[in-house]
Amino acid sequence: MKRTLKSVLSALFGRKKQIHKETYTVIHNSVHRDSNLKEQATQKLTRDQENELKDKLRCEQILNYWLDTELFDLPECPMDYKKQIISEPADYFSNSWGVEAPKKIHAGKLQFTTDSRLFVMFQCHIAGYIAKSEEKHPNYITPRTYLVGQALIPKWDNEKKQVKWTRSEDDEDLVINLATIRTLYRRCNSSIPNSMSLSDWVEARMIEIESMLHKELSPEDEGNGLDTEELQNKIIHLNRKIAEQFWPDESARKFMLNQCQPIESRFADKLDQPSELKSGAVTFRWRYCYYPEGSENQQLGPFFVDDLERAISSVGKKGVGGLSRPLQDYLLGRKKQIEIGNAVNQGDLFLSLTNKLIKGRWPDNPDFGLSLLQCVAVNVSTDLSENPIVAVNGPPGTGKTTLLKDVIADRFVTRTIKLSELCEKEEWLSSSESISSIMQYSMVVASSNNKAVENISKEIPALSKLPEQYSDVVKHFQSIAPEEDWGLFCAVLGNSSNRRSFKEQLSKLKDHFRNIKDYLHLQFLVNLLKKKGPEKADEVFKKFVTDWKDNKRISIVIEDLQECHANKKYQEFFKPFASALQRVQNNELTVEQFSASWKGLDEEQWELSIEALEAFKKQWFGKKLYSKHLTRNLDVAQRKFNEKLARVSKVLTKDNQEFKLDKKKHLVGTQYYSTIGEESENDAEKRLQLSSPFSSSELNDCRSQLFIAALALNEAILECAASQLSKHWEKLDGLIDGYLETNESTPEHQQLWSILFLFFPVVSTSLSSVENQFKLMQKKEGFGLVMFDESGQAVNYHVTGMLQRSRQAIFVGDPIQLEPVVTMPPSIDLAIAEDFFPISKKDGNHCWGDDYLISSNSAQSIADKAGKYIAKIGERKVGIPLLVHRRCTEPMFSISNRIAYDDKMVLASKPFGWKAIQSGWINVDEDAEEMKKTGYANSLEACTALDLVKFLVEEHPDMVQGGVYIITPFSIMRRELKHQWKEVCKDSSNHSWMQSAFGTDKAGLDVESFSEHNIGTVHSFQGKEASTVILCTSASNIRKKQGGITWVNSKPNLLNVAVTRAQHHLFVIGNQKDWSEGTLSAVLQNGEMQCYANLEDFKRQDARLIDDYLTEVRVVEKASSINFDFG
């Protein structure tokens, strides 16, 4: 474990007792106060103090409960064959380390280092007791685990020619399975004294375990260690003693035998069965792993203990005031929330939420502005004092990323306005005012979904994502950015791989600034010419003159020549040289022609050329001509920025005709939120939701141009401050890795963080990396804005550390898509929670603690209760909803809208223009006698899916141009689909149609890789989309998997994600009759979803334009709405 478990648990259990005392005090004081009338002034003071105490106690209760659940940490016994991390059974130990290891050492094939570790795992088993039967869904994998793990240090005894072992005393080399220990206390407590509390039980077990390990694994001769045979005997003895500690009586032993399996039972290893000893004891086997460079068996988590403990400590010392405002609101909720209903006839509310001047805009297509509720979200986010938390609910395809990019652009522009004032002062970069301003507008994007972090981090600076009109003008240190990016803007941090890649980018940035004085690269030019000689001079000049031309510096070279006396001294060289450069600038001479002329120089001409350029270089640096260019760049950038800013600022004045705002279309007055003419309220609502308030094409372009100008100004400001930056470069690597030595009692390193954010206004990280990534930023509200992407997938307490570090938080997610991955079963979650706060015991009841349970509340769910604005979708209360859908066409849009969003969404995506067979359900009926495999491995459906792909590719290629995904709810079916694809792939005659299934954008990929990238469970495809999606349902009554059908239909989340992966075409494969009984899955067989009797029936259908069959559906719907009255 990363921390000393004993100290963490001891503190937690101590606080738990204190919380119980404080709860009693609050209740007692409340009753006492209400039963005794006092003077009003005194009563008011007492009431305020009591409310403060209640809030403090509530925060402590929630945070300590979250810490307790984080410590429910289940270590996994390594069995990853793909990564070749496999624990070995006890039977191999004697031969491996008593016989083979000495041979390898003698042959030089095995060497020990100070980090080498042998990790021994005691009582290894498959933990069937963790989840109850009703909690195990079809994809549930019963974990392989162990009770105790201990690392041993190997050392070669050259005298005795054998390996000697000593126990590692390092905290991280001892792993105690808290999850199992605590579960056994609750579910198998026959041998636990009635008076023993959970905390006493856990502490007693930990003390006993450490005592046994120390006693058994300490050699009699401490200097030498244990030999392999001695160690093996000790391990066997220890393994049995540990079993006796945890299941000492017959009842407990039966529980373990009934609930657990041996670790390799799935591989039919007869040696791996549990032993029932003569004494009656039951013991599972031990296993071991060898790690030559340090134990990799240390738990990946817990990731959030330190941040939770810091928050708890802050509350304890300073009350609720010790927490950031976002974290306060997150824990206590918003007492008064304003409901955002339909926009029709609500002009006063909506105008006030859309009419702020949002200066910056991301350089997206100016013809498409933000929709009404996107605009509301961006406006609300600008008011920090009123909105420490902004909760945005974004169903699939509603523009969550678009919204965040506009927030980012506006913050960056606002920061640039401030910096343009501050940079005029001497040594401005070190001033507290500058550091404070930079950090105020710092931005972090975080998500539990690593793919979501990667996607938005790559999309932000991607050149390919810019419209053509902006692709040549959006720049920010572009010369040192990756080729596919328009510049530096987002620092992708988090895991070690990302940090390594980022430090490479940072290294290039350092080099750029170290050479900033060589504005024209004269030093590099002259040195390279000397090195390459006249034979390669043409290549050298081609590179440099191209760079001068691209960056508009040819005229500067010519101008600077005039200021150097070398121009006169070597006029026979510089006169034709400058003349030719001028012609290149005027496009009268190509760079290639200019460069080629250097091939014809004789030796005398070459030496004169080098002498002249050397003289020009020395005089250029001597006169410090670089300084005027940097200053001039800053002046130009400042002037252009000011011009753009002044122009944008006119939008709220009477002098705004140039922006061509249409009052009705762009909702510039309250009256335009009413119905128009004979328009129905439903039609008016759709019109309003699709509207873009204060967002004409002209204004959008002007705001995007301001952002572009801000990028140029930021670059110019920083280049002029190069000398101030030089002393900080070396410390940035340490800051990023978290290894920077510091004298700060509470590390925050505001100045270093501010420098990082100057160049990279946005930093991204996964939530699991926050504690480690930002351990050198412990200041409350040290950062500006944190944006939690896909927060509907985030475990609720995983955002605690980032909230405490930030001044404002925007949560963007959707609780009706995939839920957080919580490995703890609900029953255990409830058992832990009731130790800290009240939770409901009956259906229909509600206690405040229910809202913080990790098994039923995502980060988004809690944030929705903490924001100022809410809306209702059906019976659900959500944050600001995004309702304009732009991804899917029909019928996917209507299905998703119906099952998940109470028909509140509005369709904005355009129908596809090619002929296609209508989306629908392709029936697959199986015969029990012909089934090749049972369970969820439905080979008939898998073969049908592949036949369908082949048919579409060969007969209807337009339908697969945007690629094909084959998805399923069940992990076992995923394996079957992958297997079938690989089998078909063995026949090279299939490769042509299989290749086409990738889509035109991914042509050329390895055919077999389709199984890795385009086939998977629904869960693995959130955030992805393809033109055609095939959903294999797999379960059926004949397969006795009705439970799978029930599970899929239990909540709309899974089907909602599955359906919205398809942009244009959705085909469901499965037993129509069995799935028609599901409340949600039945929707996939109605409306615009056609039902096909089988694949052959599907193949007989004619392809038609989408409008043709949508018209048919509308006619049927119209006919079905006719009412008769015979009475």
TrEMBL record:
The keyword Ribonucleoprotein does not apply. It comes from the Bacteria. This is DNA2/NAM7 helicase-like C-terminal domain-containing protein. Residues 382-822 form the DNA2/NAM7 helicase helicase domain. Keywords: ATP-binding, Helicase, Hydrolase, Nucleotide-binding. It comes from Aliidiomarina soli. The keyword Hydrolase applies. InterPro entries: Coronavir_polyprotein_1ab (IPR050534), DNA2/NAM7-like_C (IPR041679), DNA2/NAM7_AAA_11 (IPR041677), P-loop_NTPase (IPR027417). Belongs to the DNA2/NAM7 helicase family. It holds the Pfam family AAA_12. Residues 919-1073 form the DNA2/NAM7 helicase-like C-terminal domain. GO terms for molecular function: 5'-3' DNA helicase activity; ATP binding; hydrolase activity.
